[in-house]
Amino acid sequence: MDAVKITILIPFLGVLVSLFLRSIWVGVIFSFLTFVSSLFIRTGYLGQINLAEKLGLTLSLQTDGLNILLIWLTTGLTFLVFLYGIVEKRERKDEYTFLFLLLEALLLPAFTTKNLLAFYFFFDAILIPMFFIIGIWGTGNKVYAAYKFILFTFFGSIFFLISVVFLAKEFYATQGKISLELEDLISISQNLSFSTKILLFLGFFVAFAVKMPLVPLHVWLPDAHTEAPTGGSVILAGILLKLGSYAFLRFAVPIFPDVIKEYWFWISLIGVLGIVFGAILALSQEDMKRLIAYSSVSHMGYVMLGSVAMVQDKITYEGLQGAILQMINHAIATGGLFFVVGMIYERTHTRMIKDYSGIANKVPFLTFFFFTFALSSIGFPSTGGFVGELLVIIGAIKASKIIGIITASGAIFSAGYMLYLALRVFFGPEKHSEKLKHIEDINKVEFFVLLCLAIFVFAIGIYPKPFMEIIKGGIDFVWSKLQIQ
Amino acid sequence: MEQVANTIELKSILESWGVFIFSSAISILGLILSRIFKNYLISWISGGASLFSLIIYSIFGKIVQEPFGVIITDKILFTSCLIISILGIVSLFVSFGELSAKEKLYPEYFFFLPLASIGGIIMTSSKDFLTLFISKEILSFPIYAMIYALRDRFGVESAFKYFVSSAVLSLFYLLGLGLIFASSGNIAITEPQGILGLLGLYLILFDLFFKAGIAPFHFWVPDVYQGAPSSTVVFAGSVVKFSSFLAIMRIFDLTKQIQTPLLEVAVILSVIVGIFPALVQKELKRLIAYSSISHAGFISLILFGIGNEEFKNFFIFYLATYSIAFAGAFSILSLFKNTLINVEDISGFSRAHRFFATMLTIFFISFAGLPPLAGFQGKYFAFITALSAGKILLVVISAAASIASLYFYFLPLIKSFIEEPKTKAGFEFSINPAVGLITLLLSAITIYFGIRPHDLIILLEGIPLSF
């Protein structure tokens, strides 16, 4: 047993324990253990857990610069969600523990495996706990939101499954055995005709685009984010969306390099569309969570753009760096914002911006943390968001001037909606309404949760070098797969 | 047909037929005794012993040449013997619970179960069309009676519908049998001779499609599943489907051709006919019935690859795991006191009976084909087989259908987990520990083979144990 396998197995153990010991502390302890053991994971690991080798389902594990940060992010954020769960007022905390541990247990193998069937297996299995998390603890129109989430995501992923199975079938036809390992599918995809590849790529791309989400397919996200409970929103924004962008770099780029070389411009346009469109929509929102949800659409556009911005059939170094770093930044900043909004909501039971005004005097710490995350989200220098967005914009300008210019101007919008939100909620004349009467500042646990995230906002913003060194391994992976043909 | 030796040794008869004779005898004996002593338990125990002997046979039996030349003795016979008798035992426990809770316990019921199981087992491995017909009727007749076990309005309606339509389709079968005999002078399952033989084969396949619940011969499924006692459906829905599908597979296998156009139409119709009515269906039993039609379409997808041994395993995997989830879902429904269970009725079900609600969730998600449950593996196998056979369009249609199906599979789960109970009165629900244990086992199987599917194939290839 090594760190990776132990990290994957601990949440499963926690799921079993949570069936019998019905307390949120099970979740706290097991997610903490997972977090600690995940810190021992190093890049360059290769391993295997056999599920059904002959049928193609093998959990081939791999860690490199592409996924190790996401693994730490998953274990860390889940721990923080549980920690916050202690002080949060929630019904049915035992089921809450079970579902979030299950979610973590399914997320970790999804980020670690390089077998496509195993990836699909966990990619889709995640829908089940998330559906119930939104449905049970959600607010307002929660059933509608949960349905929208599961139907959209499943719509994307079923065609991903068909594409994957088609590749496996091609491999079976030539080699006589079923295998869905990434290397095998890369080798088989080279023999296919270009038009077949385009169709298969579409299957991959739609699945990941729904998950990310990219603009025409983002409509599930505002509802799911808005209605989900705080923890659900944090995990959804922080980790689930990254599954799409991660899988794009891990699977879609290596298997279909020539399709991406041909069509990168159009894909990056979709990304740019997301940046601008998400930002404009965010400006007009009246619900705080919905606003942050649309800001997620905008930020994931940067990730998509950075992942495909190409110069001479090679994705730019800066673009890839920015895309991978932006995944982490977005998880921390948006996760933090959802925590903050969740904490405010718990005190006042309203998310409508118009119900608030000038609460900064009453909740100074909460205001401080809100600004930390909001500035990172805007891309303010000295926060992580600045580094990520700058790199993506550099990559985009290198690849295409027009795209670069549109992207850079899109950044202005994000300052607009975030600061306008802050202005309306935290500043302005103090409002004395029934709803705001009981608002008080955060307690120690909440402070700790937000502090953990805030530290990383500044750490990435001020000294990004160690993160860049890890990310370099991920870029090498993508580049090596691009050069195969 | 094979040459039948002039003198057939008693030993060889006993080796291949002994277990069937023994288990029928023991269940008849139990029935008589329980009528004499007026004790239902005797018949229940003898029925259990009878089914248990079939399980023992499937594990420790020997593959021998069957002396009359009517049964194919191979691995599939033992596989289906194991699965059918396990489903029979599940049904034995569930039906005892339901019938005794509703005070409609009759000893005949526990005689019919093993009898129908034997019919189902022989049906999976018949070598000629006549044996197939007889075993099919041995499977069907007890089921007509079992559907009417509760002696209520719903029961008589569904039993009558099922009986009449079965009888009509059986006539089709006999006509087909006659045509095949006329064209080739032979009733063995071989390649059809000429247009007449092909017509005969089609007529026979129609009847088997009817039994398996494949569209366009599906019309009886919702009515029967809804009106029959849930514990009968545990058996009738799973075993009849299992046996009929294996019989279809045998026919395709032995005639060395897959009736492609027929099968293509069947897949498309089944998937569509199953999904659309289910979207607006608000009664749980009917909902599962429609979903079982669409699953029949998915299973038929694997029939396209039947020439390949590996894909044959996939076929049995899908059938076995689907039957198990199906039996599990209906086991839970059998605990409700009402015959009709509307989706609205189970609002807040998890508050009152969290265990059963969770089990129902597992079975429904397995139906929906989401990982990590066995239903997903079945869907994956269906896709890989159909794509290997080049049926891309069929796969895309089934995939689209499976997206839509998520809606109605998750509807009961929403009601039971997310919504609050409508009334404070609680549920008309009787907790039965035996059924609880059985559903726990079935859901454990569903989860385990969802994660490690190959183990089921290894398990089934391992029997019978050869000494």
Please provide a written account of the structure.
- The complex is a heterodimer of chains A (about 475) and B (about 475).
- By secondary structure, chain A is mostly helical.
- Chain A has a domain at about 255-485.
- Chain A is about 75% helix and about 5% strand.
- Chain A is built from 19 helices and 4 strands.
- In chain A, the strands form 2 sheets. In chain A, strands 1-2 form a two-stranded antiparallel sheet. A two-stranded antiparallel sheet of chain A has the order 3-4.
- In chain A, strand 3 and strand 4 (about 315) form a beta hairpin.
- In chain A, helix 2 runs parallel beside helix 4 (about 95-110) and helix 7 runs antiparallel to helix 9.
- The two termini of chain A are about 35 Å apart.
- Chain B is mainly alpha-helical.
- Chain B has a domain at about 260-465.
- Helices cover about 75% and strands about 0% of the residues of chain B.
- Chain B is built from 18 helices and no strands.
- Chain B has helices spanning about 10-35, 40-60, 75-100, 105-125, 130-145, 155-185, 195-210, 220-225, 230-255, 260-280, 285-305, 310-335, 350, 355-370, 375-390, 390-420, 435-450, 455-460.
- In chain B, helix 5 (about 130-145) packs antiparallel against helix 6 (about 155-185), helix 6 (about 155-185) crosses helix 8 and helix 11 (about 285-305) packs parallel to helix 15 (about 375-390).
